[in-house]
Design a protein that fits this description.
8 helices; FAD/NAD(P)-binding domain; about 30% strand; D-Amino Acid Oxidase, Chain A, domain 2; about 400 residues; alpha+beta; 18 strands; 10-stranded mixed sheet; 2 domains; 8-stranded mixed sheet
């Protein structure tokens, strides 16, 4: 990595994510920008960039999306695309970190973001297997029965519907042997590659330009403009710049509350024999490390977990096999049947924060520069929240929940 690279460069995935074999994930790009100045430049071409571009696109305004990779080929394609309103940090724990009122607002905003994502997908007629699902949050070594009942009570107080299921009900209804679980609604699943590509194609129709193979190496404020230097020695300028670079975050934004960790995932072969209820549910557990799973519309089970607080561990081929083998064993034990050898195995890095909430907003010390990072296990959901907050800021407004996710 050279001194001139502005963002911390990482290989975002290992092996072959399931979604790379999907149809309709390619997006046409330009070889170079048509001009040197734009109203908005978005750095990155993944799901957060696509949703931000969708929120910012306006008639008569120029927009450029740049990425050093091809669109839809970064961290978004490695997502398991479990679009949850539930945040990694349980509500009752988040309340102790940031206060009851703020924690409730964060969870409510997350739920609204899932609903908005469904609306956007429908309105643009994006074929990406978007499907509403319930969530089963299973008791584990991090949350037992008592804590789960408290969690349900706090969610109900915050206006978020949830139901506690006893071990007897869980076994009778789902055939799962756990002490208990929380059943909730307002979650979904989708094909993240098709969703991202569909959004990008729409903003191109509305006049946006996408240029791949462009690395941003520096940026400065000059008057009211932001000037960006590229790796090929060119300069671009914009009235507003938004960094949606996933886990290749701005070096200037590195802080103790944000870290990069590694995760692993697998997908079974299609038409795997699975419990019938699983097609309508997302499942995850209150354990460390935790297991999470869902199905796709081809009858595959997609599962992940075994996270490590190591930003480089996902690059290990040895760990790729060992971790996904562990996930397979845990999955088979949970469901009571062997899913067979995985058809796909992959690993990725992702950013997380102390509170489980993303960092969204203006970059300190710069004018008209914004960034989004630290999406944890809620990448697509938090990307929608980021799009709304950044759109309000760029257009001269103030999102009422911006303070919840601010870098400061």
């Amino acid at each position: 990595m050279t001194e001139q690279q502005l963002t911390q460069s990482r290989d975002l995935r290992e092996s072959q994510p399931l979604w790379l074999d999907s149809p309709r994930i390619s997006v046409r790009t330009r070889n170079s920008p048509s001009m040197s100045h734009f109203d908005v430049i978005i750095v990155g071409a993944g799901i957060s960039a696509a949703l931000t571009a969708h929120a910012l696109a306006r008639p008569g305004q120029s927009m450029l999306i740049v990425d050093r990779r091809e669109p839809v080929r970064g961290s978004s394609i490695a997502s398991t695309a479990m679009i949850q309103h539930e945040i990694d940090i349980p509500l009752h724990k988040l309340q102790k970190m940031i206060g009851k009122e703020k924690a409730a607002r964060a969870w409510q905003r997350s739920a609204r973001a899932v609903l908005r994502l469904e609306e956007i997908t429908r309105s643009l007629d994006i074929s990406c297997s978007m499907r509403r699902k319930k969530t089963l949050y299973l008791a584990g070594d991090e949350l037992g029965i008592r804590a789960m009942k408290n969690e349900v009570a706090q969610r109900e107080k915050a206006g978020i519907t949830a139901e506690f299921l006893s071990s007897e009900v869980l076994e009778e209804t789902y055939g799962l042997m756990r002490e208990g679980a929380i059943l909730s609604d307002i979650s979904a699943s989708a094909n993240p590659g098709q969703l991202t590509a569909g959004l990008l194609r729409d903003v191109v129709k509305r006049g946006a330009e996408i240029v791949s193979g462009v690395e941003i190496t520096d940026l400065r404020n000059f008057g009211s403009d932001v000037v960006l230097a590229t790796s090929d020695g060119k300069l671009l300028s914009a009235s507003h710049v938004v960094f949606c670079t996933g886990y290749e975050f701005l070096k200037s934004l590195a802080n103790k509350n944000h870290q990069i960790i590694s995760t692993w995932a697998l997908a079974s072969r299609p038409q795997t024999s699975l419990p019938s209820w699983l097609k309508d549910h997302i499942v995850w557990e209150a354990s460390d490390p935790y297991l999470y799973l869902r199905t796709d519309n081809h009858g595959r089970v997609i599962a992940g977990g075994e996270d490590e607080d190591d930003p480089e561990a996902f690059q290990s081929e040895t760990k790729l096999k060992a971790k996904t083998d562990t996930i397979r064993v845990k999955l088979s034990k949970l469901l009571g049947k062997d899913i067979g050898a995985p058809e796909y195995r992959w690993a990725a890095a992702f950013g997380t924060t102390t509170t489980g909430l993303p960092l969204i907003g203006p970059v300190q010390g710069m004018d008209n520069v914004y960034a989004v990072m630290g999406f944890g296990g809620n990448g697509i959901t938090f990307s929608q929240i980021a799009a709304e907050i950044i759109s309000a800021a760029v257009n001269g407004g103030q999102d009422p929940d911006a303070e919840l996710f601010a870098f400061a």
